[in-house]
Structure formats: structure tokens, C-alpha cells
TrEMBL record:
Pfam families registered for this protein in UniProt: Integrase_H2C2 (PF17921), RT_RNaseH (PF17917)
Chain ranges of the Integrase zinc-binding domain: 244-277
A single MF term (Gene Ontology): hydrolase activity
Membrane-crossing segments per the record: none
Domain Reverse transcriptase RNase H-like: 58-157
Gene3D superfamilies: 1.10.340.70, 3.30.70.270
InterPro entries, A to Z: DNA/RNA_pol_sf, Integrase_H2C2, Retrovirus_Pol_polyprotein, Rev_trsase/Diguanyl_cyclase, RT_RNaseH
Protein name according to UniProt: Reverse transcriptase RNase H-like domain-containing protein
Keywords associated with the record: Endonuclease, Hydrolase, Nuclease, Nucleotidyltransferase, RNA-directed DNA polymerase, Transferase
Signal peptide limits: none
């Protein structure tokens, strides 16, 4: 498993392209790598190794945020002068599943602004939603504590809310309906080889590897998986052996990438922990 959990936000229709592969992860489904999976794998590799499909952010440009929510997740698109700057989506958390539709739509907005804080804070922008009631959320007299907390957060931003019809909100809507699971991709060959070279002498890796080879169903290692090339993953996150050189390389990769916008140490570390352990 590779960096798809991060890079999916940079490729349009990622979940559709990855569908044949991610469907193999469904509980109780037999793992059969067929022609559709192979074609999806090749297409994903091509998309992920080619130039980014997004517009490079212009600090002086005009921003728009489009959000949507569904019973499965939240979706959002960051636009600048009509061009996509970033995609964002996540599945609903356990406590959010029972939220009313208008609360879910509000959560989608809050989540999007949290993710793109480094782009939007201090700049006027347009917020587009297909939930008409949100246009008047700031004038509602009866709000619960949770809603008031969200509005206090939104008050930090300078935006106008505009309503768009649901049929015009296809991208955010599609993102909100996708399942938030990583697709299977390969690491860059050089970095993968470096990881494998370090794994041989890594005590933690050897301990887990030996245990899994002895009993793949050992409950102590639920979530762990050994890839065919020897890479160790935990809940789709790649294990990076202890040692400053490799771990510093991961940090440099996230810090120096121009399309991340240098969001700060906290956000960068959260992104890294979402992909590696």
C-alpha cells in the first residue's frame, strides 16, 4: 500500500478509478486480481506519476469553496478563478452518522475550512453549498451548543454563502459519497528499496514479520500486513524503520512539496502519520 490516501485528493475520479481494487478489501470478499484490477492499477500508476492535474495556487487569486455531505462522508473542492486547486473528502465519524442533514452540511464546511485554513484565513472567498438552509445559518435564533461552536469557528473566516443546485454540485457530491480507503500503488522504486534495505536489521520489523509468518491470524497484530515485496503495513500505513535518515527523508518529502502550501508542523505531521508509522 502506498501514498494513495494522500494523493487521491489530487486526482479527479480517484475513487471510481480505484473501485476494482478497493472492492477487494470488502469483508468476506475473495481476493481475485482480475483484468479490471490490473487495468485500474496501471491507470492509477499513470495518474499518480504524471503531472498534477490541479492548478498551482495563486496567493492573489480569488477562492471558492464547494462542499457537500452524504450519509457516507464529506466532500469539498477548492477552486481559484474557476480552476481546481484541491479536492478533499473523508468518511463520517461514528458520532456523525446520526447527524441531521443540515448539521452534516455544516460539518462539511467546517472540515473544508480546517483543511484549507492556510489558503483561506484572512482572505475573502465564496462558499457554495447545495443546502439552501445554510444561507441563513448565521441568523437562526435557536442553535444548540454544537452548532454555536461551529459558527464561532466560521466567524474567523471572511466569506459569502451562495446556494447552488444539487445537480450543479457534482464534484463535491461525488467526493462525499466515496469510501475513504486507500488504493494500492507502489512507492517510488528508490525509496522502496531504501526501506527494504533497512528492514533487514530492524528489530521491530523482524519481530512482527516472524509472528505473522508463524500465525497470520495472531490477534496481537490485527491490522498488520506483509506485502509481497516485504514492506510492512499497518492499517494501510507504511512502516518506516527507525533511523534518522529515512524518517527525515519522509519529512522532507512532505515539507518541500510545492502543492502542500507548507501548512505548518502540526498539519504536516498529521499528514505523515496518516501515511506512515
Amino acid at each position: 500500500m502506498g501514498l494513495a490516501g494522500y494523493y487521491q485528493k489530487f486526482v479527479k475520479d480517484f475513487s471510481r478509478l480505484a473501485g476494482p481494487i478497493t472492492s477487494l478489501q470488502k469483508k468476506g470478499k475473495k481476493f481475485v486480481w482480475d483484468k479490471k484490477c490490473e487495468e485500474a492499477f496501471k491507470e492509477l500508476k499513470g495518474r499518480l506519476t504524471s503531472a498534477l492535474v490541479l492548478k498551482i495556487m495563486d496567493p492573489n487569486g480569488n477562492f471558492s469553496v464547494v462542499t457537500d455531505a452524504s450519509g457516507e462522508g464529506l466532500g469539498g473542492v477548492l477552486l481559484q478563478d474557476g480552476h481546481v486547486v484541491a479536492f478533499e473528502s473523508r468518511k463520517l465519524r461514528v458520532h456523525e452518522v446520526n447527524y441531521a442533514p443540515h448539521d452534516l452540511e455544516l460539518v462539511a464546511i467546517v472540515h473544508a475550512l480546517q483543511v484549507w485554513r492556510h489558503y483561506l484565513l484572512g482572505k475573502p472567498f465564496e462558499l457554495k453549498t447545495d443546502h439552501l438552509g445554510l444561507k441563513y445559518i448565521f441568523t437562526q435564533p435557536n442553535l444548540n451548543a454544537r452548532q454555536r461552536r461551529w459558527l464561532e469557528f466560521l466567524a474567523n473566516y471572511d466569506f459569502d454563502i451562495n446556494y447552488i443546485k444539487g445537480k450543479e454540485n457534482r464534484v463535491a457530491d461525488a467526493l462525499s459519497h466515496r469510501k475513504h480507503i486507500a488504493a494500492i500503488i507502489t512507492l517510488r522504486t528508490q525509496f522502496k528499496d531504501e526501506v527494504k534495505n533497512e528492514l533487514t536489521n530492524d528489530p521491530y520489523y523482524n519481530h512482527v514479520k516472524t509472528s505473522l509468518e508463524k500465525d497470520p491470524r495472531d490477534k496481537r497484530y490485527d491490522g498488520f500486513k506483509l506485502e509481497t515485496d516485504g514492506i510492512l503495513c499497518y492499517n494501510n500505513r507504511i512502516y518506516v524503520p527507525e533511523g534518522k535518515e529515512l524518517r527525515n527523508k519522509v519529512m522532507r518529502e512532505f515539507h518541500d512539496a510545492p502543492y502542500l502550501g507548507h501548512p505548518g508542523v502540526t498539519k504536516m505531521m498529521a499528514d505523515i502519520k496518516n501515511q506512515y508509522f
